[in-house]
Amino acid sequence: MEERKVLSDPSLQAMDVATAAPAETLDRKHALMMERLSNRHQARLAEKSQLNSITNASFESTQSFLSQFSQSKLSIDSQLSRIRQEPDPALKPHLDTISLEISTLEKLVAESSYFLPPYELRACLNTVDQLKQTLDDVSSLVLPRKKFSFKNKPISKTVDSPVVCVTEKMQNVDLENLRFSDSWVAQGFKGIAKGTLVKKFITEESRGKNEEFTLSDLRECKVGLMGCLRSLFVDKLINCKVYVGAVMGSVLIEGVEGCVFVLASHQIRIHDAKNCDFYLRVRSRPIIEDSHGVRFAPYCLNYEGIEADLKEANLGEETGNWMKVDDFRWLRAVQSPNWSILPENERTGVVDVSNLGPLE
Fold it and tell me: If DSSP codes are grouped into helix, strand and coil, which group holds residue 65?
């Protein structure tokens, strides 16, 4: 009778319910915690699997590229060696062919820059530069320059802030006697401080040539490139402003600091950039590596004929990829701290390079 009374006691039943409630809450919390841990584990496995697949694909692509690059380099080296042994002015057309092969190899490096490791990329670019230098050396043997002679020429004073305007029509000018010939190279600008540099591609000619261009070792310069280019290589720029029309292929940027770039291109890869702003229109996602303090905004360039140039390069429409940056040194799921969107109140307005002035 006492046992039956205890079991039917309302106060004891209430105590059982009160004890059971915290237990159910604890079980629920435990289940939620286990679910979160399971989801986190699955996410890590998926991220690891994706990274492995990307790494394997990149490895295969890198091996294939390096094999092709090596074969092309050996072929060019062999041709240059034969010409060096028996230099003959009649071989000039052959030198032109070799120059085209080197340009093709340079384009291959630019187009493959997306999956190449930084070390391999720099090594290939250095190899291309060495091939260009060897070609110049061999060319001087085949077609030696005229002997130097003194002439009564007026001595021009050095200008601290040169304004160099180069057009396609200047290709027939004697670059030996051009005032800023030391700063102008066959395919770009190199080694200039505090200058305003303008390259105007004549539409009908440049689109057929699909020219490549290089900017190297520039400091506190303003650069304007108008027209259509095939590819653009940028190396070692400090405190410069670079405004570029349409690039039909790739833009490769390395070793820049405190610069502003306004670019339209199909592919853009940025390595070792510090505190730079990029105003982009790009067909694929921009890639950064070993960079910090870089900010991005939409393309804002203008000059007469730019719409036709962008359309010709299939860059007429804004894709929004300027804000979809991939940081190859940041593989976590959260936003990379190395780049950010440039605040609207800090962005420059539309830049018109039709009459480019000195750097402000």
Answer: helix
Q: What is the pLDDT of residues 134-162, one digit of tens each?
A: 888 888 887 765 544 444 444 333 334 44
Instruction: Decide yes or no: CATH 2.160.20.70 for domain 163-352.
Output: yes
Which one of 3.30.1360.170, 3.90.550.10, 2.40.400.10, 1.20.58.1250 gives the CATH number of domain 8-145? 1.20.58.1250
Nearest of 220, 206, 163, 222 to residue 351 by alpha carbon: 222
Ranges of each domain in the chain: 8-145, 163-352
Strand partners, 190: 216
- The pLDDT assigned to 21 comes to 57
Instruction: Give the dihedral of Cα atoms 314, 320, 321, 326; nearest 10 deg.
Output: 180
**Whole-angstrom Cα distance, residue 227 to residue 164?**
17
Q: Tell me if residue 157 falls in helix, strand or coil.
A: coil
- The answer to whether 301 and 280 are in contact (CB under 8 A) is no
DSSP 200-245: E--HHHHHHHT-EEEEEEEES-EEEEEEEESEEEEEEEES-EEEEE
Residues 6+ apart with CB under 8 A from 239: 219, 220, 257, 258, 259
pLDDT for the residue numbered 8? 53
Structure tokens at 22: 């915290």
Angle subtended at Cα 325 by Cα 68 and Cα 238, rounded to the nearest 5 degrees: 80
Q: 25-71, pLDDT tens digit by residue?
A: 766 766 676 676 666 666 666 555 554 554 454 556 788 888 888 89
Please give the single-letter amino acid code of residue 152: N
The pTM of this model reads: 0.58
Return contacts of 352-356, CB within 8 angstroms, 24+ apart: 352/302, 352/303, 353/198, 353/224, 353/226, 353/243, 353/301, 353/302, 353/303, 354/302, 354/303, 354/304, 356/196, 356/198, 356/222, 356/224, 356/243
Angle CA(314)–CA(319)–CA(216) in degrees, nearest 5?
70
